[in-house]
UniProtKB/TrEMBL annotation, chains A, B:
Alphabetically ordered keywords of this record: FAD, Flavoprotein, Oxidoreductase
Gene this chain is encoded by: D2HGDH
Catalytic reaction(s) noted: (R)-malate + A = oxaloacetate + AH2
Enzyme Commission number(s) of this protein: 1.1.99.39
Main enzyme class: oxidoreductase
Protein's recorded name: D-2-hydroxyglutarate dehydrogenase, mitochondrial
Function: Catalyzes the oxidation of D-2-hydroxyglutarate (D-2-HG) to alpha-ketoglutarate. Also catalyzes the oxidation of other D-2-hydroxyacids, such as D-malate (D-MAL) and D-lactate (D-LAC). Exhibits high activities towards D-2-HG and D-MAL but a very weak activity towards D-LAC.
InterPro entries linked to this entry: FAD-bd_oxidored_4_C (IPR004113), FAD-bd_PCMH (IPR016166), FAD-bd_PCMH-like_sf (IPR036318), FAD-bd_PCMH_sub1 (IPR016167), FAD-bd_PCMH_sub2 (IPR016169), FAD-linked_Oxase-like_C (IPR016164), FAD-oxidored/transferase_4 (IPR051264), Oxid_FAD_bind_N (IPR006094)
Taxonomic path: Eukaryota, Metazoa, Chordata, Craniata, Vertebrata
Length: 540, 540
């Protein structure tokens, strides 16, 4: 098969990447009609105010403190990059060794401007062989490596902590093959998610995942972090849809498990080790993934619910009546909607309610799907589960409804300093932590809000204050983690652990499991050179 | 949560287990109106003739040769069970230590009567704690252990090779919890698949997997072998639907990753190590699994196709037009149908065709599904992709259509000695190996037939001869494996490797991967006591 190139973004769209956003904020420039990187629907940022009040992106972005200083991390005894190393890299990836500090800036700092490393070199391999040679060299020389995709992570997993060599997948952006009978795509790790989706749509398929960061994130990074996102309810986990991986191990050995088979029960399924291990066990260089057919019809509806019990019952009814066409079931509380209205001037077509539910269907027959949706609407309105509903009549309206849910993050950021938690809970208890925290925090928090992927049991819990306060943080942590652990929940539903959350792993996994993880790390990366200081806790 | 017991099979249904089948064949008894264990639709075995001509179950079943003799295996230097060991086991599982040779017989021999171990003791723990204490003892004493569920495996993975202690999950049959909002079931490993499905159906849910052996197989064994089966096309791999596992490691340590969360990105996903590792890395004691709602409507249709190219085009059309309601796409060739008719006297409602396709839909609206199916039928008949079609008008007819596909195994067994291969291939090449083999083998084979789960790229390739012939075997192996490897296929799509296929792993996985598997085995089971002689090749 002759690989062919996936076209890259046109220049103006490149501006929409986190890199652009950061630059715009830093410069305080007026930016209009550009995509907000956190929204899959291309919501607009109309002024630099977009950055104001954001806990991580103030209007005049100050220098981001070095992670090593802010968190007082001790550098591990890796070697430092020498002139000889640079010469060796230049031989492996000629003309693609970046050492210019300004060029390195965007890759040393995460897009939330929370973490900063001080890497002196970034490498841009194009092939697996180049990645293998780079890692073989780094392994021999005991040089630490930070694999980096689109750098859109939420937990500081994609930027160096010290001077790790940044290994970028940006130039590994080739589609290797697509089989239109089976819907199996094989591509390099650096392909951008949205671009892959566009490529597939031309052939009446779609990617099985969709994320706010799709315009920048790389499929390799998606797999390395086991990304969830908006199509999870319908198409399930990447663990089920990723069919094969090619991975380069810490010592440069290439593990080619890039099969395109739906079924393969020959030995241990090694690729699963690398899905969600955040680049700490190996560098993913290529991905084989099963893609669903593009749905013929998509419907979106918004409902108001009188209470959380009714939200849950609506979800059960929805699963029963919409069945196989249900593709999203998102919820938000009244305060979320108020903040969206206040800060973004977005109007809800549904009157004030304690809760709102956004339902999306994706099916193969517009008529059937509309029938099912109206039957469902009749049932939930008639039974009082929902007080009011609005079904999008066209794509524009559907986008407007999605914007109410998708732009919550933006609205909250404009309201003050935001303490963010991304947790999984048994769906029946999903909202209890919100009411519990409201009582616990009282007036010390401006808002405690809850929204998220109810269909996946995934709550985005956000606490807003006028400004950062250590005492409020102390009231939140470890309380939120302990509460979550008390419900056998997950302290990181879809964002992973990275640098930020590595030390809370123990709230969701027992010591025996953490110990096995550490033994796996030692087995596959005995020198610990791959993405150090991430995922596993500092202390055993 | 108070565990409650899943009712076991009534006695007459117990007769339907592989154990019954074997007994019936051995005794030459006339058995009527009993379930054939290989059929999910309860096809009937009307006389002992059911066993005649079966390569693995002759009418007067001879003694099965000991595996160690037949395959000349060298026993590894494990300890042998002493009186002190038996006393220790009796303290751990009082009254549940089986040493009677007759009672042990059914657990020493696999249901296909191909492999025989000579274990002297079988243990029946009820709790995870008991499993842990047993393994701790065995680990200290260097005693080998053969974990056993329903003993329904196809590759000799579930019976001992020598005198390994058989650790049965049969009494670990409790449902721990079921959440009806999320559809998440948590249960012990020894629950029987069909029984779980029945339990769920009462609550309008189903298990996400279905197998011919469902009346006997244990969910723990299903997970340990990453079972595929009949619902794979619709609900996907167990890797996506299993949410949590509890596993006891070789040294008795309990790894509790039994979460009930759809999303949990905290650290490495250890449960994936145990899914499909065939009991060689740990003993699965409990499972948390996401269950889909029970479909309101199920339709089954059979079509005749003029060629394999048309089968493929029908599949593409089917995916496009039936979309989200498509739940099975099975195919069989003309020779399969002829053998089914000849040996089982089952009539096809579709006239003689080179190929047949069985399509099943499962959806939430009978009317919509019928509409979609008839639209699809119109399209494929109009375009000449299929020459004729028959849609089941009721459940009885649906079962009859399924029987044509499901009883192929039985029909082939009656025709002579069967060489069986279960391979995955790129769907476009799925049938090429059949035509290739016909040309290669010529008259030395009575029949070379192909059928299987086309939607999953899974071919059941069967070669029939009057009797076993070493020269025919030599013409088949390693040729079939090399052919499969040449297409980047899998030499074991859903059956696993067990004892029978462990040495062909290298046809589907590169040496670097096999080496990592061996290092994982050494990491988690350094003494190699768990299911020895299985899954990994004899030589590195």
């Amino acid at each position: 098969m002759v690989p062919h190139r996936v076209p890259r973004w046109p220049t103006w769209l490149f501006c929409a990447s986190p890199g652009w956003w950061r630059t715009a904020c830093t410069l305080g420039a007026s930016v209009e009609q550009r995509r907000w990187p956190g929204s899959p629907w291309g919501a607009r940022v109309t002024s630099p105010l977009a950055c104001r009040g954001c806990s991580s992106t103030p209007s005049r972005a100050p220098e981001v403190t070095l992670t090593q200083e802010r968190y007082r991390v001790q550098r591990l005894p890796f070697s430092t990059v020498s002139k000889e190393d640079l010469a060796a890299f230049e031989r492996i990836v000629p003309g693609r060794v970046v050492t210019d500090p300004e060029e390195l800036e965007a890759s040393n700092v995460d897009w939330l401007r929370t973490f900063r490393g001080c890497s002196k070199v970034l490498l841009r391999p194009r092939t697996t062989e180049e990645v293998s040679r780079i890692l073989r060299h780094c392994h021999e020389r005991n040089l630490a490596v930070n694999p980096q995709g689109g750098n859109t992570g939420m937990v500081g997993g994609s930027v160096p902590v010290f001077d790790e060599i940044i290994l970028s997948t940006a130039l590994m952006n080739q589609v290797i093959s697509f089989q239109s009978v089976s819907g199996i795509l094989v591509c390099q790790a650096g392909c951008i998610l949205e671009e892959l989706n566009r490529y597939l749509e031309e052939q009446d398929f779609i990617m099985p995942l969709d994320l706010g960061a799709k315009g920048s994130c790389h499929i390799g990074g998606n797999v390395a972090t086991n990304a969830g996102g908006l199509r999870f309810l319908r198409y399930g986990s990447l663990r089920g849809t990723v069919l094969g991986l090619e991975v380069v191990l810490a010592d440069g050995a290439v593990l080619n498990c890039l099969t395109s088979l739906r079924k393969d029960n020959t030995g241990y399924d090694l690729k699963q080790l690398f899905i969600g291990s955040e680049g700490t066990l190996g560098v993913i260089t290529a991905v084989s993934i099963l893609c669903p057919p593009k749905p013929e019809a998509v419907n979106v509806a918004l409902f108001g619910c009188p209470g959380f019990a009714e939200v849950l019952k609506t979800f059960s009814t929805c699963k029963g009546m919409l069945g196989e066409i249900l593709s999203a079931f998102e919820f938000m509380d009244a305060e979320c909607m108020q903040l969206v209205r206040h800060h973004l001037h977005l109007a809800s077509p549904v009157q004030e309610s304690p809760f709102y539910v956004l339902v999306e269907t994706s099916g193969s027959s517009a008529g059937h799907d509309a029938d099912k949706l109206s039957g469902f609407l009749e049932r939930v309105l008639g039974s009082g589960l929902v007080t009011e509903g609005s079904v999008a009549a066209d794509q524009r309206k559907a986008k407007m409804l999605w914007a109410l849910r998708e732009r919550i993050t933006e609205a909250l950021s404009r309201d003050g300093y935001v303490y963010k938690y991304d947790i999984s809970l048994p769906v029946e208890r999903l909202y209890d932590i919100v009411t519990d925290l409201r009582a616990r925090l009282g007036p010390s928090a401006k808002h405690v809000v809850g929204y998220g992927h109810l269909g996946d049991g995934n709550l985005h819990l956000n606490v807003i204050a006028e400004a950062f306060s250590a005492s409020l943080l102390a009231a939140l942590e470890p309380y939120v983690y302990e509460w979550t652990a008390g419900q056998q929940g997950s302290v990181s539903a879809e964002h992973g652990l990275g640098f930020k959350k590595k030390d809370v792993l123990g709230y969701s996994k027992p010591p025996a499991a953490v110990q096995v993880m550490q033994r796996l790390k030692a087995l596959l990366d005995p020198k610990g050179i791959l993405n150090p200081y991430k995922t596993l806790p500092t202390r055993a």
